[in-house]
Write a structure and sequence with these properties.
The chain is α/β, with parallel strands linked by helices and 431 residues long. It has helices at 3-35, 40-49, 52-59, 74-90, 103-109, 126-136, 150-158, 182-188, 199-207, 219-227, 235-241, 254-266, 283-291, 323-327, 347-350, 366-374, 383-395, 397-413, 417-428, and strands at residues 65-71, 94-100, 117-120, 138-144, 162-168, 193-196, 213-215, 246-252, 273-278, 297-299, 314-316, 332-335, 356-358, 377-379.
């Protein structure tokens, strides 16, 4: 085969891939509309996207200068938030558009007032991509951590939009690094720069020909460090704790709660307090959790009718949005997800200098791996592990303090990613 024939074959293959991908998105959209009739989360996913173009048209004029930030969900939003808020403070003459892929991000942050538009990212069809980029016409597009949508990325490249990835993380098992991953590798060409969390990610990108990557770290460290400077006081938590050692169990799932319930019912003393903030706050699940606990327990939703919070030993937080502040009151933190779906955020308790217990499924989370290695995070595999580690932390104040200091230092040693990224942005976008 001649060289030109070889390149023509590759080009044809890429075109066919793009057509097949576009058809697949339409098929997925069709089935999602059917599923939405029976599933609330998918209903939000489908119906919310119907409003996206209208929201943008009503706010963004053709003459506006815009910056677009995309987050998959709530966790990625927390990574992007330090950048968003610095951009808002500096680029007064730019409109900021924030998009989410997932309802769990959009529904929580749809009223976020540091941006001009919050909406769902349209499904990645060729037509949607053209319409979206035309309406937003960004000076810069910022993707947080991951999510690589080929049609949208292709449209950004066509329009010569400066496109960066921040807090990026790459793994060897991703399609980009497979022999059959050529089409997805092509989508990475859209990015003018990658800001990645670690050297492994930088080396992986270099292995497939991308030298435009900087190891900046994770912007979440900047975000959680800033949290310590804000007012985190909550009177109802103070009233409940009454100065006693307290464990805060955050973002817990059923498997986590089995450990917690068993400890509370058999080992919790009158000198200890326990706060549980479940990931799922479905009323029936909350009721079942409360009923399974034999110690005196109060719900957040009950505090208006309960003047004697201090008489309770267990406090269940059946609301969202206050867990970070509650961690500031913790003597010890347990972060959920390590037995089921994947570990939740360990950085939020770590920033307050708190020792942390987690389940065994943490290997996909760099910050957890590093904190475990340093000793600020303790892995528990069984009920016996959980009970013994928790009692040791409660009884030995020096041990507890040492573990907490490791967590706090880990945060302080890793701040600065936001500054590096903003310096780059300032070199590309004028005020």
């Amino acid at each position: 085969m001649k060289v030109w024939e070889f390149f023509c074959a590759i080009l044809l293959s890429l075109c066919l891939m793009r057509v097949l991908y576009n058809i697949t998105i339409y098929i997925v959209r069709f089935f999602l509309r059917i599923i939405a009739l029976f599933n609330n989360k998918i209903r939000f996913f489908v119906n919310g996207r119907k409003e996206s173009f209208g929201k943008i048209e009503n706010t963004i004029k053709p003459t506006d200068k815009t910056i677009w930030i995309h987050c998959a969900s709530l966790g990625e939003f927390e990574q992007g938030r330090p950048i968003i808020e610095k951009l808002r403070a500096k680029y007064h003459n730019h409109k900021i558009v924030l998009t989410f892929f997932s309802p769990s991000g959009y529904e929580v942050r749809k009223e976020y007032d540091e941006v001009d538009v919050v909406c769902y990212l349209p499904l990645d069809t060729i037509l949607n991509a053209k319409t979206f980029i035309k309406l937003v016409h960004p000076k810069m597009a910022i993707f947080v951590k991951y999510e690589f949508w080929p049609s949208i990325l292709n449209e950004l490249q066509k329009n010569k939009v400066e496109t960066i990835l921040i807090s990026g993380i790459f793994r060897k098992n991703q399609v980009f690094f497979k022999s059959f991953g050529g089409w997805m590798r092509k989508s990475l060409l859209t990015f003018t720069h990658f800001f990645v969390q670690d050297e492994k990610s930088q080396k992986l990108l270099k292995s497939i020909g991308f030298d435009n990557a900087t190891v900046s770290g994770d912007t979440r460290f900047d975000r959680v460090f800033e949290i310590t400077k804000q007012d985190n006081s909550l009177k109802f938590i103070k009233d409940f704790i009454q100065g006693k050692p307290t464990i805060v169990a955050g973002s817990t799932w059923k498997e986590d709660e089995k450990l917690l319930i068993n400890y509370i019912n058999t080992k919790l003393t009158s000198e200890e307090k326990f706060i549980i903030a479940p990931h799922n706050i479905n009323p029936n699940e909350i009721k079942a959790l409360k009923n399974s606990i034999t110690k005196k327990t109060v719900l957040f939703s009950e505090i208006e009718t309960n003047a004697s919070l201090n008489e309770h030993q267990v406090f269940i937080i059946d609301t969202i949005g206050i867990l970070t502040k509650i961690y500031s009151y913790a003597s010890i933190a347990y972060v959920g997800g390590g037995f089921e779906t994947g570990l939740h955020n360990v950085l939020e308790p770590a920033t307050f200098g708190v020792p942390i217990l987690i389940g065994p499924k943490y290997n996909k989370f760099n910050e957890a791996i590093e904190l475990v290695d340093k000793g600020g995070c303790i892995v528990v595999n069984t009920q016996q592990d959980f009970d013994s580690q928790l009692q040791k932390l409660f009884l030995d104040a020096v041990y507890r303090q040492d573990k907490g200091n490791i967590s706090k230092k880990y945060i302080e040693d890793n701040i600065g990613a936001t500054t590096k990224i903003l310096e780059y942005i300032a070199s590309k976008i004028s005020i």
